[in-house]
């Protein structure tokens, strides 16, 4: 900018200089010409008057520099102090002579190209019709310039230097305050009020940029907050499979460092299947797959990103479906188990009934066979009851009505119910602790206590004992059932709460277990916001504690 201002100012200076020079020379020249004619008129009048008085002989006495010519009325040159009159032609055709003959005075100028001179002529008519002409010579502009060339060039040079210095200082003066403006905090010295609009505009644009930046930062933070806190993984790639953006979950799954931006997936991703769905998305189609990694199952969904009808990238979403898949597999396993568990007693019942129908059972065995059919039917009924109870708990049914339940009283009732079975097994049952009321579903809590006590009796030893205890630890009611039975090996302890899981299948069936008792306990406890803890040692006994 400084250079531009300098160049323009310098050019203006040169133009002004040239215009002034031309004007100066023009004015000087025209002034000189009119002065020359004035001088010639006075001189011609004076000489003409003298010739009228004294006669043509007066002309011989003149010694001036100017050329004097005396012309007879017929145009013949009678006298000329600068040339031989015999060599001069008739002067009637000269412009100034013709004009003087007509009007009394005449003047004209003629230019000599060879001499670069200009001759001025002034003619006066005398009373006898003869004409007196006085002329002088003036150098032309070009000749004058040639004469003045050296000083003129010096002056020009001096003015050019001056112009340069002034233009440079001017440019600096204009640009210095502009360069000194702090673009972040524009302020201007009062001396440069012309720059105030520029400063105001800068301030306004700064404000706009600041607002837009804040808005953008906010949007970015919102986007990051959403994507970073998403359990789902999110990945955006361009057509060259370079990661443009991705959240923490996606980076972790793909084992990429940091934000992953700039990483090429074809070089860094080890999952062939992801590269396959990404390829499909980049070819413009939707694709998805189930991916198992680190004991988790992910649903990978890839979609093309289309802009102006062209695929410009792909968005890949990773949804954690581990729980869904586990539930699905549990459901499948449960269905298979249920079918199997139902089929076994039904096969027995059908077998016994068929034998009886065919008359193959002797009368004395009839009672025994009927007893077997009754036992298997009971097992079936127990099993179906347990399945119904579990499916209600699975649905987290709101059909259950809550009420204030005293756990101690409830345990007392259950113990009374189980006392005959315990006596049959020669197991003593006892209840200790204090009254503790909770907000709960009576029949679920009753079933929970029943299942725990039933197991404690079933898996006990002859002469063993079962102790039900209700106590409070730091305001939490705790129900525990301790037995002196066979205990559960450590390896099985985490699995006994699974549906149809039994430590010893034949023993469980022998004692009439369905394999669902502890599952119902776990779900009923969860329904009440409680957790079940198990402590057991094979050969010594087990303690199941329900902590509300
Ligand atoms: P079941 O109807 O077979 O008793 P449960 O779900 O109630 O099914 O129990 C699962 C398994 O846990 C049982 O088969 C048994 O092997 C074991 N178990 C449960 N309670 C006890 C206990 N008090 N002592 C020893 N083993 C137990």
Quick overview:
With 548 residues, the protein is an alpha+beta fold. The protein has 14 helices and 17 strands.
Description of the structure:
This protein has 548 residues and is an alpha+beta fold. 51% of the residues lie in helices and 22% in strands. The chain has helices at 2-54, 95-103, 141-179, 196-228, 248-254, 265-268, 272-282, 322-357, 363-394, 407-424, 442-458, 490-493, 505-510, 517-527, and strands spanning 67-71, 77-80, 105-112, 117-125, 131-139, 233-238, 243-246, 287-293, 296-307, 310-320, 403-406, 428-433, 437-440, 465-473, 476-483, 531-537, 541-547. The chain has a five-stranded antiparallel sheet with strand order 2-1-5-4-3. A five-stranded antiparallel sheet has the order 7-6-10-9-8, sandwiched between helices. Helix 1 (2-54) packs antiparallel against helix 3 (141-179) and helix 9 packs parallel to helix 14 (517-527). It is rod-shaped, with a radius of gyration of 63 Å. The two termini are 82 Å apart. Adenosine-5'-diphosphate binds at residues 451, 455-456, 459, 483, 485-488, 496, 501-504, 508, 513-519, 542.
Radius of gyration: 63 Å
Main beta sheet strand tally, sense and closure: 5 strands, antiparallel
Average pLDDT level: 88
Low-pLDDT parts are none
How many strands appear in the DSSP assignment? 17
Number of helices: 14
Distance between the termini: 82 Å
- The percent range for helix content is 40-55%
């Amino acid at each position: 900018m400084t250079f531009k201002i300098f160049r323009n100012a310098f050019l203006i200076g040169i133009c002004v200089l040239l215009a002034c020079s031309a004007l100066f020379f023009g004015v000087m020249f025209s002034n000189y010409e009119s002065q020359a004619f004035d001088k010639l008129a006075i001189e011609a009048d004076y000489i003409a008057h003298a010739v009228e008085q004294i006669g043509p002989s007066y002309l011989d006495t003149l010694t001036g520099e100017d050329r004097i010519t005396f012309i007879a009325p017929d145009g013949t040159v009678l006298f000329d102090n600068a040339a031989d009159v015999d060599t001069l032609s008739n002067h009637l055709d000269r412009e100034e002579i013709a004009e003087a003959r007509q009007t009394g005075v005449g003047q004209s100028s003629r230019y000599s190209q060879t001499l670069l001179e200009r001759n001025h002529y002034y003619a006066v008519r005398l009373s006898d019709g003869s004409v007196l002409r006085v002329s002088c010579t003036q150098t032309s502009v070009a000749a004058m310039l040639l004469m003045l060339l050296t000083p003129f060039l010096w002056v020009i040079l001096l003015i050019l230097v001056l112009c340069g210095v002034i233009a440079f200082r001017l440019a600096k003066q204009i640009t210095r305050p502009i360069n000194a403006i702090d673009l972040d905090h524009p302020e201007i010295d009062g001396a440069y009020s012309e720059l105030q609009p520029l400063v105001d505009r800068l301030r306004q644009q700064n404000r706009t940029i600041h607002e837009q930046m804040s808005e953008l930062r906010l949007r970015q933070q919102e986007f990051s907050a959403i994507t970073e806190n998403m359990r789902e993984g999110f990945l955006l790639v361009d057509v060259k499979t370079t990661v443009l953006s991705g959240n923490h979950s996606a980076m972790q799954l793909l084992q990429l460092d940091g934000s992953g931006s700039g990483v090429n997936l074809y070089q860094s991703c080890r999952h062939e299947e992801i590269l396959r769905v990404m390829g499909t998305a980049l070819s413009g189609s939707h694709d998805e797959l189930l991916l198992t990694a680190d004991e988790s199952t992910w649903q990978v969904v890839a979609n093309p990103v289309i802009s102006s009808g062209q695929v410009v990238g792909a968005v890949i979403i990773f949804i954690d479906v581990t729980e869904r898949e586990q539930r699905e597999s549990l459901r499948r396993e449960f269905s298979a188990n249920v079918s199997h568990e139902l089929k076994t007693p039904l096969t027995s019942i059908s077998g016994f009934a068929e034998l009886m129908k065919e008359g193959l059972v002797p009368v004395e065995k009839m009672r025994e066979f009927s007893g077997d059919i009754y036992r298997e039917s009971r097992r079936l009924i127990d099993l179906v009851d347990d399945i119904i109870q579990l499916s209600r708990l699975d649905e987290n049914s709101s059909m259950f009505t809550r009420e204030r339940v005293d756990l101690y009283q409830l345990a007392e009732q259950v113990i009374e119910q189980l006392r005959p079975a315990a006596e049959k097994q020669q197991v003593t049952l006892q209840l200790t602790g204090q009254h503790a009321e909770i907000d709960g579903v009576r029949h679920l809590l009753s079933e929970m206590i029943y299942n725990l006590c039933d197991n404690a009796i079933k898996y006990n030893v002859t002469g063993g004992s079962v102790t039900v205890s209700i106590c409070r630890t730091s305001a939490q009611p705790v129900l525990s059932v301790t037995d002196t039975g066979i205990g559960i090996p450590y390896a099985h302890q985490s699995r006994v709460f699974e549906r149809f899981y039994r430590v010893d299948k034949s023993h469980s069936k022998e004692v009439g277990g369905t394999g669902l008792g502890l599952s119902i306990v776990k779900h009923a406890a969860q329904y009440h916001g409680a957790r079940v803890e198990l402590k057991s040692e094979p050969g010594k006994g087990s303690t199941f504690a329900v902590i509300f």
